[in-house]
Amino acid sequence: MDRRKFFKTAALGGASATALAAPALSQGREQLTMVTSWPRGLAGVWDSVERVVNNVADITDGTLTIDAKASGELVGGLQVFDAVSAGQADMYHAADYYFLGQSKALAFFSAVPFGMTVSEYMVWYYAQDGMKLHHELTEIFGLRNFSAGNTGAQGGGWFRNPINSAQDFQGLKFRMPGLGGEVVAKLGASVQVLPASEIYQALSTGAIDGTEWIGPWSDEKLGLQEVAKHYYPAGFHEPATGLQVSVNLDRFNSLSRAHQRAIEVAAAEAHQHNYSLFVANNGPALQRLVAAGVQTHEFTEDVWDAYGAATAEVMEENRSDEFFAQIHDSVLKSMKDTSNWVSKSDGVYTAQRDRVLASL
Description:
There is one protein chain. The chain is an alpha/beta fold. It folds into 2 domains: 9-150 and 241-280, 3-Layer(aba) Sandwich (D-Maltodextrin-Binding Protein, domain 2); 157-238 and 295-331, 3-Layer(aba) Sandwich (D-Maltodextrin-Binding Protein, domain 2). Helix content is 48%, strand content 14%. It has 13 helices and 12 strands. The strands form 2 sheets. Strands 1, 2, 3, 4, 5 and 11 form a 6-stranded mixed beta sheet that branches. A hairpin with a 2-residue loop joins strand 1 and strand 2 (29-36). The protein is globular and about 60 Å long. The N and C termini lie far apart (68 Å).
């Protein structure tokens, strides 16, 4: 069976039936329609969308442009994968762990529990097997994907009541996507995957008891501090969350080599810029949240241990998929090799730097 044809046909049946106009072609100029998983203007993630759009236009001197649509304007935020795979839109901007129903292996290109830091992710993705594996996986679905943003380490979540032990997850209605959601489900939580546009209302009405989103900057803009007062800045589930740009593979192959490279380079630049943007804004935002009455906490060691044990179970269960196991092995080897150097260089330096500066 042609797997790509099968998945493309399946996606067509599941996506919105809205037909999109053919790409604009005029005097060598082309336009791509991008659907996204984000509300328009949402801090951080929409900045990445705009960065990619502007990068492509600048690199190509306007010969390739992108018309970006917010979640719901053409298709829902969680339907963008199917729409692009089916050719109903040219490209999407999202986080690939929203689409684990297509393949659990997609999680590695966004974030997995107890996974890579940003620097480790970049080593694996750009200098080792990451991008190659990303392309091999997404070609099955008729897509060409690139990393195009990174939130850095995400917060452990917002809760109506503090989490004092792992037992507090029993019956908790919690919003968390990706493999992290599978982990907290093992702890007894009732897990929901909601797009950003639905989180505030769900938390304010009690449809959920807690949620993770990104970090202080984006969370503040979403207004989560208005409906929950207990915040955990450190989480286990997303130590470096990649955002993705994906282009329908047939559409990508129809582009000139220069336009293909423009998308690849634009996405890579957006990846590092987006990470810098999140880190620059999270510290001041956290100070504002605390000043407004938000209480910050750290999970207890028994909670961390429970996260770890459940993560090991989730990973082992998913390794029955050959592609998942292959990518998992690649990630583990890369983390080990990178950490072996970074811990002896950067790790020692930063520890000594902090000690020396504290004594001055």
